[in-house]
Amino acid sequence: MKRRPPPTLRRIALEFLALAALHYALLHLLARARLLEHLLAPGPGSRIALAITAGFLLLRLFLIVFGVGWLAARLWLLLSRPRAA
Predict the structure, then answer these.
(1) How many alpha carbons lie under 13 Å from residue 38 in its C-beta half-sphere?
(2) How do residues 52-72 score in pLDDT, each as one tens digit?
(3) Where are the alpha helices (DSSP H) in the chain?
(4) Nearest to residue 62, comparing CAs of 26, 19, 31?
């Protein structure tokens, strides 16, 4: 099994920015489509809307609670790894 090369600063930043951009795009989509209203008053045909809204809320939970620590840990590991001579 091949080992993946250690992440670079550019890759770490791109991954985090991609998650933040996905969050921002979904936030605007959910606001325009009024999908968040299905959480308060779900009807018989709102299973897909509830699944999309739950996915968005899980992404938001990850970014707000775990994302900052994940980014800090990856940056710390990047800066503290031994350099080649």
Answers:
(1) 17
(2) 888 888 888 988 888 889 889
(3) 9-33, 37-40, 47-61, 68-80
(4) 19
